[in-house]
Amino acid sequence: MPQILIIAGDATEDLEFFYPYQRLLEEGYEPRIAALSRKKLQFVVHDFVDNFDTYVEREGHSWPSDLALSEVDPADYAALVLPGGRAPEYLRNDADFRRVVTHFFDADKPVAHLCHAALSLAPLGVLKGRRTSAYPACAPDVELGGGTFVDGAAVVDGKVVSARAWNDHPEWMRAFLEVLREHAPVK
């Protein structure tokens, strides 16, 4: 059973963690959760309210990480999933996060990211020359990172599959699972 690494942190978007986690389990993959440390993570829910210019944040579910990023040998994993929320803005500052994520891009392994995860990818240079989706407010970050922003529900660029936010889950995970079945099939 191929292991899939999901990197999360406190303030990861609740739905953007649980949907891919559960879909990967359903498909026979073994998702493993890495964070800055082994701990119980507190997720958040982003929602929209009338007459508010941006989203609001509410407390979501909690979930334990399986291992710290410093413990991750990325060679042990067939693919990577990066959910959004506020976590990407601080995860990108961690040296082990950068080490692990760049391994997946350098090794041309499947990667799925959505929403604000692009904030953590742009400074690493891994979006250069790529077409990628993200939460529309992150378009400048994608472009500053050398990528081409695409406002789409399931943007596939090689083995990288991206989307705007949790409402794109069906298209995003359908496309990512097609990539996984081709490049990291469950035996």
From TrEMBL:
Superkingdom as given in the UniProt entry: Bacteria
Pfam families cross-referenced by the UniProt entry: DJ-1_PfpI
Family: Belongs to the peptidase C56 family.
Domain DJ-1/PfpI: from-to ranges: 3-178
The entry's keywords: Hydrolase, Protease
Gene Ontology MF annotations: peptidase activity
Name of the protein in its database record: Protease
Record flagged with keyword rRNA-binding: no
GO biological process, one term: proteolysis
